[in-house]
Fold these 2 entries.
Entry 1:
Amino acid sequence: MKTIGRTSVMLLRTEDKIHATGALCKHMGWPLAWGGKVEEECITCPLHQSRYELETGEVREWSPFPLLPAYGRLVGSMRKKRPLQVHEAREIEGWIEVRLSS
Ligand code: FES
């Protein structure tokens, strides 16, 4: 997790790409770098398991909380479903450049 200006950004590397996204889950603000799980080009928040596509930031699942789905629906309804910010990122000679999206 890095801060660029006043924006918190999470950087992560998948097999073939560097990704730069918003650092905090859009559900309740959990820092995704603290236990976020990456698989199938998505990141899943460890708190209530909201899941976002890394490429677009779109929400695949919103607070499903599989251990207690009724609780997941309840806490999921407390915040409007919003996509994760996605920023442009590239790696050049060992340096990572990020262009913040607006
Ligand atoms: S804070 Fe991430 S899913 Fe609830």
Note: The beta strands are 2-4, 7-13, 18-22, 37-39, 42-44, 51-53, 59-61, 86-92, 95-99.
Entry 2:
Amino acid sequence: MSRKIPKAEQRLQEVYIDDVAAEGKCLIRTEEGIIFVEGREGGPTVAPGDVVDIRIVNRKKQYREAVAERVHSYSPVRTEPFCEHFGTCGGCKWQHIKYDEQLRFKRQQVVDHLSRIGKVELPAIRPTLPSEETQYYRNKLEFTCAEGRWLTDLEVRSDAPIDKRAVGFHIPKRFDKVLPIRHCYLQPDPSNAIRLAVTQYAMGHDLAMYNLKTHTGYLRTLIIRTASTGQVMVIVQVAQDRPELLMPLLDYLRQMFPQITSLNYIINTKKNDSYQDQTVINVAGPAYIEERMEDLTFRVGPKSFYQTNSQQAYQLYAITRQWAALTGSERVYDLYTGTGTIGLFVARQARQVVGIEYVESAVEDARVNAAVNGITNAEFLAGDMQQLLTPTLFDRYGAPDVVITDPPRAGMDEAVTRTLLQAAPQRIVYVSCNSATQARDLAILDEGYSVKDVQPVDMFPHTQHVENIVVLEKRS
Ligand SMILES: C[S@@+](CC[C@H](N)C(=O)[O-])C[C@H]1O[C@@H](n2cnc3c(N)ncnc32)[C@H](O)[C@@H]1O
């Protein structure tokens, strides 16, 4: 619950920022408790080591929240952000922090979670594995086409008529406002060129963009997927069935970008832009692009999940496979398998792989990918983990020798963790995108397993996110 803030307590001056915190915020420790501080639109950004004046905007029982008003001295961890949209876009919140410092903060986050929440005995935690590419590392971006462009202070004050259509990213916490992006450093070419071409085409042909408040307009989103094979997928999402508007736009894209190998569209008449439940119509090229990893080919469809930093996904999988220490005789369970990529990546070193995942289309993708790669010792099962992972399943497919688990941010259900304890595989490799929930699960697994090695991996440079791999061995 928020409490009213007495006037005298609303502002604090020249306070030292101690650390990073979740969601790109920073943390200040005071005698009165913790304050989470963030920068503000048009104002200063914050970094650990800065000395700042802050304004308290929210007061809860456990902590206070503040925005920075002025920076008195800048931290040595800072560097110059490279993107003109930094500070407004919200996409890469750590661009103003040096990359090696980002890696240090990410490792510290893992150390803090595993030691404070997990409270298990730990080996030395390795330094964060850097991402080879720190720019243009994403293989998928979804841009929003909107009526309500974000206006600069200058534009707000101006009387001149302004075209408020935009193709770009949502402003943080403003679902109806979109920042037009001139250049994005997240995805390789031709991502920027395609987005700019669609914007120009829409402006030149008077195509209305969707308005999320009034639910009017036509163009909704532009999804671009790129692959390490050079293949490119584009999906244009529109709000109405108007072929006379759509076909010329798609023809234009085909002419301008012969690099597009898979061109698709979606007619989404719902009130929101999510398209997992929508039909994707393929107009040119196959309805997928291909990623390659060692001798494997993965087909990635318009709705398929694929790790967004392909190069670093390879590093993540390689460590996972190394730590699984397979000799060819093991039955491996790949829990939360998504499109089966980890399971297929280790399959040639295992006797059998069983992958479990609740998104049915992902399981279908996994089966297709097994067939495409001639892998016959991997089975993929669709269903909720807690329901599927039972002694009955082990009776049917055999008990696991090694488990690889890669759950969503919420971690594993306690029942699933306890089932693993009972199944007692020799080794568990736990890949996580949230070391706090991973630590909670490790505390339960501690009954039967000890942590042998910990490797934080940076999949998302310039963000606070960190992936973490832990290998556990059965206690003898
Ligand atoms: C972090 S992703 C794993 C990605 C995959 N290992 C890879 O590398 O591509 C987590 C996966 O767990 C699935 N999932 C989430 N909750 C689940 C549940 N209760 N039962 C089964 N699968 C679940 C999600 O659909 C998602 O594909």
Note: The mean pLDDT is 94.
